[in-house]
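Budget justification note: compute hours in this period were largely spent on complex prediction jobs such as the one shown. Inputs:
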Amino acid sequence: EVQLVESGGDLVQPGGSLRLSCAASGFTFSNYAMSWVRQAPGKGLEWVSAISGGGIGTFYADSVRGRFTISRDKSTNTLYLHMDSLRAEDTAVYYCAKTSWAMARGPFDSWGQGTLVTVSS
Amino acid sequence: DMQMTQSPPSLSASVGDRVTITCQASQDIRNSLSWYQQKSGKAPKLLIYDASKLKTGVPSRFSGSGSGTDFTFTISSLQPEDIATYYCQQYDDLLSFGGGTKVEIK
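Corresponding output:
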């Protein structure tokens, strides 16, 4: 059974940094692309970033490019999102999601339960 | 930038009704479209991918159609457990979601 467990969400001040983690199990991690998707309170889904199965290709939404960095560690089956220069508008529940294949562009067939990031002074 | 326009933003229907949601892409995305169901306080779940393929285990009352720029998601007979917000997502030009459709029981 595929399991994705996010952690690292917290209250952080504007301009601060945070690293989110997503522990994956139940599938061959390096065979599948992974993404981060966020949802601001009461709002819709917003794709944030994706990484290919092999980790070579990384992709970002315009709203986070240059501030967020996605990475993955195949030795620990963990996906990361390092977030710098955080803004109030980054406040959201962050989900990690597994893509159905190795390419980053694809449907998300499994999701974690989400971790809440709050950016506020 | 790719834009995904989903309509209506919300709808109210009776149990047993046929429900239809549309999603329009700002450019041709072939059949690179999926549909998700998100219940309150929960993570989204994949229902349909490649515009019309039903994910294994998803009830057959859910279906999808379309290609190019115009897509449709249908619930053939609305059930109480279908109360949720539904999102389309394109994966031809990177990745993006539609604005969502909240489905309620009348």
